Amino acid sequence: MGLFVSNIALADAQKPASEQDGKYFDAEGNPTYNVQPDGTVDWYTYSGFRRYHSDCHVCHGPDGQGSTYAPALANSLKTMDYNTFVSTVVQGRMNVGTGHENVMPAFGTNKNVMCYIDDIYVYLKARADDAVGRGRPAKHADKPAAAREAEASCLGE
Q1: 90, 126, 152, 156: which has the highest count of C-beta atoms within 10 A?
Q2: What's the CA angle centered on 89, arms 88 and 95, to 5 degrees?
């Protein structure tokens, strides 16, 4: 059972196995979220919320809930692993079925997505695990220096 604090569901979800410069990782070394008992999310989860809503929500709906146009990523990440997520975002995907076709465009050259791919993943993973609720996280950790440096390097600043 999750504990609800200010609209954030603190699930009995996985806890990070490790941390480096404010970025959290699961036991397999994949990026993951960290939600404190008071509902404070790590910087990367908060950044992922912001980046998701700037580039992904138009098709996949607010908070990863899906739309008539694209699937609910908050559901997809219950079973989709990190490598499949990254591959799909980078390369895109086309599904053609009986009378139904949907296309996920490739974002591999879009720096506004690729520079924050891990952030988007951890936000959606937190949504999939019910570790964060809908809407902007009310509290978040400060932006680590390592995040500033990675962002500047990736964006060519």
Answers
A1: 126
A2: 45
